[in-house]
Specification:
The chain has about 110 residues and is mainly beta. The chain has strands at about 15-25, 30-35, 40-45, 50-55, 60-65, 65-70, 75-80, 85, 95-100, 110. The protein is built from no helices and 10 strands.
């Protein structure tokens, strides 16, 4: 059994970006906050799928260059091999829970 509270971890960029709550051995998960205009570079995974559950606000996902608008309550999954780029085009912060599985330590390929 593993238990962790979000308050025990820090966001990568101080008050935004990813906050990992768990990294392996089977699942990587955490929360991520996007400020208005903030984005994450397009990337894909060869083995892992990456899912996001939007818990606040709205985010634009580009999955293989196809725009998918997501709002609170939506769950979106990028399957292995699908390039995904995320941006907050709204005027409010957005927050999502993210999950990557099956966990692989070296499985992120940045889009050039």
């Amino acid at each position: 059994m593993v238990k962790v509270n979000e308050s025990e971890r820090e966001y990568r960029f101080g008050d935004s970006g990813p906050k990992y709550l768990r990294r392996g051995p089977h699942l990587s998960s955490g929360v991520v906050v996007f400020k208005p205009g903030q984005d994450f570079q397009g990337h894909h995974h060869k083995i892992m799928e990456e899912s996001f559950l939007i818990i606040e606000g709205e985010l634009d996902f580009y999955i293989d260059d196809v725009l998918v608008k997501c709002v609170q309550g939506d769950l979106i999954t990028a399957e292995p091999g699908e390039t995904h780029y995320i941006i907050n085009n709204s005027t409010s912060n957005a927050k999502a829970v993210f999950m990557l599985a099956p966990f692989q330590d070296q499985d992120k390929y940045v889009q050039e």
